């Protein structure tokens, strides 16, 4: 008989409702930690057990657990539970108390009603495992209050101006902190101004270096046309103006751009020695003097010349169209 009570006790750790078919159900309810002020006793959180005689239908939980533990069939487990319930009812009819180990006790009241008294020594809340109730001595605050009042009457605590003046170094420390803060602010501002000035000078220096290096600026056009043989006829060099543009054309194969006019003239002479009808074709938007290998009226002719020059002379040559 006691084995069935043991199985019910084991299941109460994991489930909130364990039905004993034909008899009733054991229910658990979580209760938080409590304090009994009359005895100054602290109780840990626990599961409170109650009994409901209306839930008697077999849900299979207890029978399946018994079958798995004792390695018997489900039918045999159900039959074992029925014999256990018959023995409990027989004892109850005879007016005896039935006690289930670690669960509680059953008895019949004067009104012939079934009563259940849960056991107090077992806590089925696994989260509170190992926690025990304990009593703490009461804190007697009135005694300490009277002792403090008695001490204050004998030696009252006062704060006089003389007491506050005993630590003048605190005032000096506060003043020093303010001075250091102001000094730090102006120091940071000076460092910031120095950095800004230095950055401006470096920026101007870098721009100057860039301008100095843009003496011969050329641009590369991708996907050049196939190379062809081009016979360039050398003509007399004349300055390129709007009137000569109508005569020579508006398509220029550019060799480079120069800030100094003397460098542009030198480039023109070098190209003329190579057989090109080179000339200065004017200033670009950057103020650089542009030098062309030659000038053409027809676009296709200019592109063919550009392809030949890029392959044999200067891969950075490019085509300029002046409208």
From TrEMBL:
Residues 245-322 form the SPOR domain. PROSITE patterns: SPOR (PS51724). The chain crosses the membrane at residues 169-188. Coiled coil: none annotated. InterPro entries: HU-CCDC81_bac_1, HU-CCDC81_bac_2, SPOR-like_dom, SPOR-like_sf. SUPFAM superfamilies: Sporulation related repeat (SSF110997). The keyword Membrane applies. GO terms for molecular function: peptidoglycan binding. Keywords: Membrane, Transmembrane, Transmembrane helix. This is SPOR domain-containing protein.
